Amino acid sequence: MRMVDLIHKKQENQTLTQEEIQYIVKGFTEGKIPDYQMAAFNMAVYFNGMNPKEVSALTMAMVESGDQIDLSAIKGIKVDKHSTGGVGDTTTLVLAPLVASCGVPVAKMSGRGLGHTGGTIDKLETIKGFQFELSQEDFIQQVNQHQVAVVGQTGDLTPADKKLYALRDVTSTVQSIPLIASSIMSKKIASGADAIVLDVKVGDGAFMKTIEMAEELATTMVEIGNHLGRKTVAVLSNMDQPLGFAIGNTLEVNEAVETLKGNGPEDLTQLCLSLGAQMLLSAQRVKSIQEGTDLLQEQIDSGAALKKFREFIEVQGGDASFIDEPERLGKAKYQIPYLAKSSGVVSHWVANLVGEAAMVLGAGRAVKEDQIDPVVGIVLKAKVGDSIQEGEPLAIIHSNREDISDCLARLDQAVQIADSAEELPLIYKTID
Ligand code: URA
Ligand code: CA
């Protein structure tokens, strides 16, 4: 086989065989296929796409490029949840204990945040003593004993994806549905999931700006999962505005606690119930979405979900006192109100701009090497559809510096106040 022939084949919009795709991924990972040939191939895929069989073969070849986590020693169906990345998205911190409290094992590997989106590990790291580096044995033992563990990425998972993503990033081939779908699904499959629930974000703050694009991505990922024997379902959810009120690491941990106590923001709570019900259904814990939603609500109302959260934090070495005393997580030096410049109804809170406004305060990373300031961020006081009077706070900015002009400039761009607001659905549809 010669790479140049395979590039030509995809350029001619012909279908590649599994062997050909394996040859490409293996050759590229091992450094035998140079970046310039792989870049040309990516561009051919960008324009001509791949059929479901090809995307599944690409996904599996990436899975096989590195370590695969074996979770078979954990009893039950292991369901993983993945979000394509949002602003203020605290769902994992809520869902992990909530679903585990129903007796369904949650063995979760999470990452760090980049750009305007946050990462679960950055949030958990704000909890004193919390250990997210567990050995494979301890990880499995903890899930068997406590139904939940959340760890950072361990081992050398999907090195092909890491190398490919870096190349896509500099060749304008990130925005290709087969390449995104195989990238996401390869990581989920390599981390040992039996079933996968995908939260595909749509809107200003998301990778996918339109419902059509999000639906195509979701369908492709569901096809891959089902092709490779992992029951997969995708929920398309709105990311025009941030999820919940809090954006920033300790602020979001406290928001997760409030949600587990039953006092969380409406949208975050609803999304957690929807995704959680899909997880319970995939794990065959319940027979319908309604039964799942009811069970999850019961776990919140009875305090069982919060109890599981405390257990999870403590068993991973964390100081759980913040659950009763939120100020234990620390506080930024300044709390600066961001005031409405006119009266009306909030019609836009553009998610990625709010995410960037929090990032420049130090809540996120512009580049991988940046340090995070755990206590800074933004707490919204009004969301889309809420009425506001001129001079009332739209948000509170938690900052460790007094000059926040860079943050304010982004918020000025992010918010719009009008006579009325278009009602945003939280969930557009579910694809299974
Ligand atoms: N997230 C991923 O993990 N991969 C992509 O290609 C895009 C988003
Ligand atoms: Ca939030």
Automatic annotation (TrEMBL):
Gene3D superfamilies registered for this protein in UniProt: Nucleoside phosphorylase/phosphoribosyltransferase catalytic domain, Pyrimidine nucleoside phosphorylase-like, C-terminal domain, Transferase, Pyrimidine Nucleoside Phosphorylase, Chain C
Keywords per UniProt: Glycosyltransferase, Transferase
Natural source organism: Facklamia miroungae
Superkingdom of origin organism: Bacteria
Cofactor: K(+)
Keyword Secreted: no
Gene Ontology CC annotations of this record: cytosol
Protein name: Pyrimidine-nucleoside phosphorylase
Domain annotation Pyrimidine nucleoside phosphorylase C-terminal: ranges: 345-418
E.C. code: 2.4.2.2
Catalytic class of the enzyme: transferase
One family name in Pfam for this protein: Glycos_trans_3N
Keyword Nucleotidyltransferase part of the UniProt annotation: no
